[in-house]
From TrEMBL:
The lineage of its organism: Bacteria, Pseudomonadati, Bacteroidota, Sphingobacteriia, Sphingobacteriales. Coiled coil: none annotated. InterPro entries: FAD-bd_FR_type (IPR017927), FNR_nucleotide-bd (IPR039261), Riboflavin_synthase-like_b-brl (IPR017938), SIP_FAD-bd (IPR013113), SIP_fam (IPR039374), SIP_rossman_dom (IPR007037). This is Siderophore-interacting protein. One of its GO terms (molecular function) is oxidoreductase activity. Residues 11-118 form the FAD-binding FR-type domain.
Amino acid sequence: MNLEERIFTKLFMNWATVIGKKEIAEKVFHFTLEVSINFTGLIPGQHLRLLLFPNQKGKLRDRVRTYSIWRCQCDGKKSYIDIAVCAHTDGPGSKWAEITEVGSQVLISRPLGKFTLDTTKSKHLFIGDITALSHFYCFTHHLTPQQEIDGIIYGKDEKQLFTDFNGTLGFTFQKTANGTDTSLLAYYRSLKIGRDTRVYIGGDGHLCIALNNLFVKELGLPRKQLKVKPFWILGKTGLE
């Protein structure tokens, strides 16, 4: 066993079974995974790494993809994990989402990540693209009715949108293929963001950079008021 295989064997120790699959928007699939581990210590906003096509030969790292935990329900010694997979490219994740059927197995990591919920703030603002939508939905599940929630999700078409488990969207939709569009940046600039608001920015790496510069360098928000996580950058691989 080479070094890569040893690392991945240690990371992906949990077999999960696909017990549910549904296309919930254009090229967006909702999967429910069953794993014989109780993830009771899960922090809202953590993710899973999946080793896709575990029996396939080839470089393991090319088949690892990261997906936000939309919802996790524990029952005894088992956990049932919901994830949303966007299949808008021709990469391994999109291929897996399209061809995988109920009953298939996949290797998963334990819950990981630091792009997590801060419950100490009274207001929460979420900004991102479709790939961040399930992540933000997870956050809202763990906020109280007394905490104010607002959000902006952008995409090139409303057909890519999907609702939360209760059938609601809960966020403002901005139709654009580019999150750093001049008019959209002007919209972000006009937002009244107080010091009691935690701002979460996720999805396109270019958006994360642009909004970090806008809010911190131009508008003077404290850097610690923002939580920023690039999920992807066009043309690059290896991002979580």
